[in-house]
Amino acid sequence: MKTRIWLFMLLIALGITACEYDDSALKADVDDLNDRLTALETQVDRMNADIVSLQDLIQQIDQQICIASVEETADGYILRFTDGNTVTLRHGKDGADGTDGKDGADGTPGASGNDGTDGKDAPVIGIAREKGIYYWTLTAGDQTSWLTDEAGNKLPVTGTAGITPMLGIDKEGYWTVSYDGGTTYTQLTDTEGHPVQAVGKDGKPGESGNPGATGDSFFQSVTQDSEKVILVLSDGTIIQIPKAQPFAITFRQTENILLGKEVVSLTYTLTGADADTQVKAFVSKGDLTVTVNPVSLSEGTVSVQRNAGASAEGSEVIVLLFNKEKTITTLLTFADAPDQANTDGSAEDYKVEEGVWDN
Question: Is 73 helix (H, G, I), strand (E, B) or coil?
């Protein structure tokens, strides 16, 4: 009797053990999905930071503010503008790869299955200019379109109606975008109206999943020359930003300018000038008449004439170049010249020691 009881209890124990559900594979799937979503969230943060940098960049361009310097860093570039603001551009880096599909259970190996579905490439928020205004664009796959509001209006990058789009990923693994600072999100769709997948789906047991989405920087390259910085966005858009030039005024000649009876016009060239730049001149020594004649923001003339009966020898004129931030002083000195002296005050073709023209 006791033997039968023990056998019966043993059978019950075996039955209970056999009925237990092994959910380790399901838990692994969930953990894997969570890992990929966490990696993509980090990627989204970088992409949203790029969007803000792009918006700041366009705002500086709209205000016609030049670049003072470009600093290369380990992660990209820092653009320093003449108003003191900076914009950071990040190098492109690949986003996290999707993990492989779950291996088949132990036992007789089966035939290899097909690969799991890839996550699509991360959408690219870019810009395009129309009638002098920059608007946000969206590139999904090989198609680029305008980002629009519910009424179908294009979203400007800056200005009173400027919008900062924010990318995100929903619980189903699809790309989303917010136009209200992250309060509400809607799924991004491709040109066929399908939601854009962010997380690659795994294959079935025995299959392998291909890498998921990648998230390169919006800025493809940064180059520069002496006059401008050239940015190429990942969608091919090219932006050129002028560099600030040294604030200076240049004359062909500044010392021992010959003055005869005629008016001498001295041409000057400006660099780094803006709408607030002015050129003024006054006589600091001698009996002269001086007039400034601006032609443009980059050039003009200073006209000088010695007054009747006066000598120009040792005379001086101070030229001031100034704006709201800087003032530069240039000293012009003069000497007497015969009546045949050049009208620009030069003596390149005149032999002063002989007093005759050099033909």
Answer: coil
Backbone angles phi, psi at 102, to 5 degrees: -70, 135
Q: Which residues contact 88 (CB under 8 A, 6 or more apart)?
A: 53, 76, 77, 78, 79
Distance CA 310, CA 287 (A): 6
CB atoms within 10 A of CB 179: 19
Q: In the sheet that 299-306 helps form, which strands lie side by side, from edge to edge?
A: 248-251, 264-271, 299-306, 288-294
Edge-first strand order for the sheet with 257-259 is 257-259, 327-336, 316-322, 278-285
Burial class (CB in 10 A: 0-12, 13-18, 19+), 26: exposed
Question: Which of 147, 140, 152 minimizes the C-alpha distance to 164?
Answer: 147
Rg (CA), the chain: 37
**pLDDT value of residue 212:** 37
- Token pair, residue 63, equals 């205000």
* Amino acid making up residue 200: G
Among left, alpha and beta (phi > 0; psi -120 to 50; other), residue 355 is left
Whole-number Å distance between alpha carbons of 357 and 207: 95
Section 17-28 average pLDDT: 56
pTM more than 0.70 = no
Helices (H) and strands (E) in the chain, counts: 2, 22
Q: Which residue has the higher pLDDT, 9 or 230?
A: 230
* C-beta of residue 35 within 8 angstroms of C-beta of residue 100: no
Q: What confidence tens digit (pLDDT) does each residue in 343-357 have?
A: 566 655 544 333 334
pLDDT in tens, 194-213: 888 876 554 333 333 333 33
Which of 121, 236, 126 has its CA nearest to residue 175?
121
Q: Domains in the chain, start-ordered, CATH in brackets?
A: 25-102+116-242 (no CATH), 248-353 (2.60.40.10)
pLDDT tens readout for residues 81-129 = 988 899 998 875 433 333 343 733 343 433 433 443 444 566 778 888 8
